[in-house]
Amino acid sequence: MASTSDSTPVNAAVKQLLRNPEGNLEAISETADLFKALATPSRLKMLLVLAHGEATVTHIVESTELSQPLVSQHLKFLRGLHLVGVNRIGREAYYSLKDDHVAHIILDALAHTVEGHEH
């Protein structure tokens, strides 16, 4: 098993999951859903935009060069997984990451990929 001394500290709940994965299938399933959400370039680009802060659908469309219907479809999917939240102010909807963990996962994966290409 990989050492966690140089990475994110493992809290008690994660330590319990590591000791008894079979007893924690719901958490494992939800984690697999997270990786499924990150598995498409379109959603990954959108989440990178949101890693910078709140954004409207229009801003996400302009930043990612994805179509508005596709962005809306992906946002609905990401909201369903509780990865993205929405804050409505008047007629405008502002989307944001629900927590910073998703941004850290994406940035760590990108760093791994970029560093891998440098060797």
TrEMBL record:
Q: Which SMART domains match?
A: HTH_ARSR
Read off the Pfam families from this record: HTH_5
A GO term, aspect molecular function: DNA-binding transcription factor activity
Q: Which residues form a coiled coil?
A: none
Task: Alphabetically list the UniProt keywords.
Answer: DNA-binding, Transcription, Transcription regulation
Q: Which residues form the HTH arsR-type domain?
A: 23-117
| Protein name, as recorded | Winged helix-turn-helix transcriptional regulator
Specify the species. Answer: Brevibacterium aurantiacum
